[in-house]
Amino acid sequence: MSSLAELYAKLLSLALIGFILGRTLPATVPVRLGKLLFWVGVPTSIVAFLRKTDLSGQIWIAPGIAFTAIFSGALLCWFAIRIKKTVAHTVLQKPTQGSLLLASMVGNTGYLGYPVILSLVGTQYFAWALFYDLLGTTIGAYGLGVALAAQYGGSVNNYWHITKAIVINPALWSFGAGLLIRQITLPTLVVSCLDFVAWSSIAASLILIGMRLSKLTSWGSLKLASISLTIKMIVVPMILGLSLSSFGLTGKTAQVLVLQMAMPPAFATLVLAETFNLDRELAVTALAVGSMILLITLPIWLWFFR
């Protein structure tokens, strides 16, 4: 409970600082901060934390679980859309269906998942969160997510830009570099600098979330967003979390995976909604509400999979 209270204090205080800054600073500031984190902060954090993580055991199963969660979320949402059409006789527009599917699939396992895991579980198990995010969520968002967004939005001219974004993603490259140099003994000063940049980047990412949330002024589509949030943050983590023990995944490892599965929708869902002309209002609502719901669901998951 003390770790959870400390995490809440950090999340709320840093997000509040970001929210205030987002309301007062020019709109270019969060864009530049996001680029700085994307190109420097997150890659450096990955290299720094990889040096302290345990890569033994079944760690390569993490991306498989991530893909299972992504496909499960999409399938359950697809059924929900069909049920809504059959029972309630409500036919949703294709762009709205696309945003619903994306919000049910892809979670904020990076900018939000990393600090949550590091605070509640520790650096020893960070690799599980890292493998889940980089080899699962990232590929799922810009792979299956792009395919669905193009199908439901109709904008297929952006495939090359998304493909290029995956190829040049510095987080993936730093992941490979971190694996190569993790056994190399570095000078103490270099290690200290890596750690400083890594933890500063975690704090900056939480501030960035607050800054971005300050720009999300739309609260429409709340009823529709609740469908995706229920699937993404409750149903999928519960069903898959209960099955982890059958793979020998228990204790802290199970907690990491469940917490990553239970993250609110990622900002990538909004990026894809804007790129492929999906329902942006629904994506915005799911992001904002999901981030607040996380404060309620976190202690529940920690207790249930303690």
Summarize the structure in words.
This protein has helices spanning 2-24, 28-50, 61-87, 94-105, 113-120, 126-141, 144-153, 159-167, 170-181, 188-213, 222-243, 251-261, 267-275, 280-304. It has 306 residues and is mostly helical. The chain has one domain (2-304): Na+/H+ antiporter like fold. α1 packs antiparallel against α5, α3 packs across α6 and α5 (113-120) packs antiparallel against α6. The longest helix has 27 residues, at 61-87. The N and C termini lie close together (12 Å).
Please provide a brief summary of the model:
With 306 residues, the protein is mainly alpha-helical.
User: Beta-sheet strand percentage?
Assistant: under 5%
Number of helical elements? 14
- End-to-end span in angstroms? 12 Å
CATH topology: Na+/H+ antiporter like fold
Question: What is the CA-based Rg, rounded?
Answer: 19 Å
Mean pLDDT: 87
Uncertain stretches of 5 or more adjacent residues: none
* Structure classification: mainly alpha
Helix content: over 70%
Order of helices and strands: HHHHHHHHHHHHHH
Number of domains: 1
CATH class: Mainly Alpha
Shape type: globular
Please state the second-level CATH architecture.
Up-down Bundle
Q: Describe the largest sheet.
A: none
Number of strands: 0
SSE blueprint and pairings:
Layout: H1 2-24, H2 28-50, H3 61-87, H4 94-105, H5 113-120, H6 126-141, H7 144-153, H8 159-167, H9 170-181, H10 188-213, H11 222-243, H12 251-261, H13 267-275, H14 280-304
Helix pairs in contact: 1-5, 1-10, 2-9, 2-10, 3-4, 3-6, 3-11, 4-7, 4-11, 4-14, 5-6, 6-12, 11-12, 11-14, 13-14
